[in-house]
Structure formats: structure tokens, C-alpha cells
Write a structure and sequence with these properties.
- There is one protein chain.
- By secondary structure, the protein is mostly beta strands.
- The chain has a single domain, classed as 7 Propeller (Methylamine Dehydrogenase, Chain H), CATH 2.130.10.
- 0% of the residues lie in helices and 60% in strands.
- The strands form 3 sheets. The protein has a 4-stranded antiparallel β-sheet with strand order 1-2-3-4, with no helix packed on it.
- A hairpin with a 4-residue loop joins β7 and β8.
- The radius of gyration is 14 Å and the shape is globular.
- It starts with 5 loop residues before the first strand and ends with a strand.
- It holds the Pfam family WD40.
- Keywords: WD repeat.
- InterPro entries: WD40/YVTN_repeat-like_dom_sf (IPR015943), WD40_repeat_dom_sf (IPR036322), WD40_rpt (IPR001680).
């Protein structure tokens, strides 16, 4: 159901399948016993989705693009929770965890430097 090339695919531990495309669209799909069912569509970014990551528990998803934005989604409730404007274009993104801590943080690579966003969600 994407209208352009799908560039990113992630599977959530919460039984969701998430796809992102070159036109900046993000789609959530619910895993069913016999296949998948379309759940929600977002025009996530003005440019192509450059990075897509799902948290280890499968409840959060984040995307980046060359539009200087990080967007964080609540997967189960199909909701965009946070949009962060950056003064730079992020290169890649991933969820990180401190040992013994259940709070997730988002880490990005920018010009080969790692940056960690420590924001309570």
C-alpha cells in the first residue's frame, strides 16, 4: 500500500510491522494469525525516511530524515508522541538502554559522533 519505494522495515515485539518509504510515509501494520492488517498511516517526514528503529519492548518507534527531525511514535496506540527539531541532519538512529534501566533513550550518529537524547517519554 505504499505509493513509493519502501526503504525501511521493522518488526515490533508488540505484534506490529512498520514500514517507511522514500516519500516520507510511515505505515503501521498489525500482525494477525493469518497475515497482516493495515492499521495507520503517517506523513512522517517531508523527505525520505533515513532511519527507522523500534524499541526492544516494541512499544516505541522512531524515525529520522534529512528534514532535521526526529519523530517518536507510540506503536500500540498509533500516535506520534514527540517531534524533535535538530540543528543538524542525523545520520542513523537506534534505541539504547543502560544496564538495569528500563527507560529507553534514542542515540543518533551525526558526522561520526554519537549523540544521545535523554528525554522522558
Amino acid at each position: 500500500m505504499h505509493r513509493d519505494i519502501v526503504t525501511h522495515v521493522a518488526v515490533s515485539a508488540a505484534d506490529f510491522f512498520i514500514t517507511g518509504s522514500v516519500d516520507g510515509h510511515l505505515k503501521f501494520w498489525k500482525k494477525k494469525p493469518l497475515g497482516i492488517e493495515f492499521a495507520k498511516h503517517f506523513r512522517s517526514h517531508l523527505g525520505p525516511i533515513e532511519g527507522l528503529a523500534v524499541s526492544a519492548d516494541g512499544l516505541l518507534c522512531c524515525t529520522i530524515s534529512n528534514d532535521h527531525a526526529v519523530k517518536i511514535y507510540d506503536v500500540v496506540n498509533y500516535d506520534m508522541m514527540v517531534m524533535i527539531r535538530l540543528p543538524y541532519i542525523p545520520g542513523s538512529i537506534e534505541w539504547v538502554y543502560e544496564q538495569g534501566n528500563v527507560k529507553a533513550k534514542v542515540a543518533m550518529v551525526v558526522n561520526l559522533k554519537m549523540i544521545c537524547i535523554n528525554r522522558t517519554l
